[in-house]
Amino acid sequence: MTKPASVNEYASPEPLGLRERKKGALRRRLAEVAIALIRERGYERATIDEIVRRADVSQPTFYKYYPSKDAILREHALSGFRSLMTNEVAQRGPITERIRRFLAAIAKQMTADRDVWYAIALSNAYNPIRDPELLSSSEAGTRLLEAAIEEGQRLGEFTSAYPSRRLASLLEGVMFRVCLEWGAGFPDNRPLTATVAEGFDLFLRAARPQPGDKAPRRARRGE
Questions:
Q1: C-alpha–C-alpha distance, residues 33 and 54, integer Å
Q2: Whether this model's pTM surpasses 0.70
Q3: 3-state DSSP call for residue 197?
Q4: CA gap 210, 120 in Å, rounded
Q5: Mean pLDDT for each consecutive 10-residue tract of the chain (223 residues)?
Q6: Domains along the sequence of the chain with CATH
Q7: DSSP string covering 123-160, please?
Q8: How far apart are CA 100 and CA 92, in angstroms?
Q9: Distance separating alpha carbons of residues 60 and 49, to the nearest angstrom
Q10: Rounded Cα gap, residues 111 and 130, in angstroms
């Protein structure tokens, strides 16, 4: 099993060369234009033709970076909250409270950007069953969450009976369900910030250290 990187590794990435920075800037511009267009017109009416026109690039240039607009939505769902988490882990205080603030920031961003998240759900662009790589991708914000939980385990804030990757996966599962119910208005219409906070409280009841906790069994090679 790959060990999660430390929080500091994610917070301080290696600097890129000029060419890579330019390519990254163009990729971000294409994504930003596409997301803005989806907000404005909705998923169906946000066409590749309009994206490249607004970004002032050719279609071949667009396809060098993204195979489709769904790929942009996939990327947004995969790592769109990474900067929020990076900002929080750089702060002081208990890891649990940093994660709580991160989740609250996600809830506020999703509420403000509901149309984009509706498009992600409508397009099925983020589907770990169809694309299992989403679960293990190094680009996923989950990797930073794993690192934060591992640090919390060292500080005695989380149980050490389960690997940090498993705890992060379970937390994401809780949050995914909470967001689905919020989108469907089930079982009520409370703000997403409230239901996310409730979901995290429920997760913490199971994830806090318990008397007699033992370290998880080391994974065998290849597991």
A1: 7
A2: yes
A3: helix
A4: 38
A5: 52 71 94 94 93 97 96 88 79 92 92 90 85 80 88 95 94 92 90 96 95 69 44
A6: 8-207 (1.10.357.10)
A7: HT---TTT-THHHH-TTSTHHHHHHHHHHHHHTTSS-S
A8: 13
A9: 11
A10: 26
